[in-house]
Amino acid sequence: MGSCRTPDKGIGEDGVNLFRGGHRVDTLQEVALRSKLQNLLQQHRDLDIAILSLEETGTGDQLQLRRLKKMKLELKDTIQQIGTMLIPDIIA
Known about the structure:
Elements lengths: L26 H31 L4 H25 L6
Helix pairs in contact: 1-2
């Protein structure tokens, strides 16, 4: 399966560490993560525009606004997690 994370070591079946923060992300995984990150950032911007538009017009119902804001927060969390994986370890 190649990129599965084993529960105790954080190492895929191919022996390559999957995450930074003490582990290495290989080049293909980094490219995939960067692509996903760009996609998520675009979705986050789109949600921001939709939320602002609904708030400005006053026509959006509150339930819809809450759902969009929750989706935006979930995207932000995922963006931060991927960003953390892509930041190289710095030895202080």
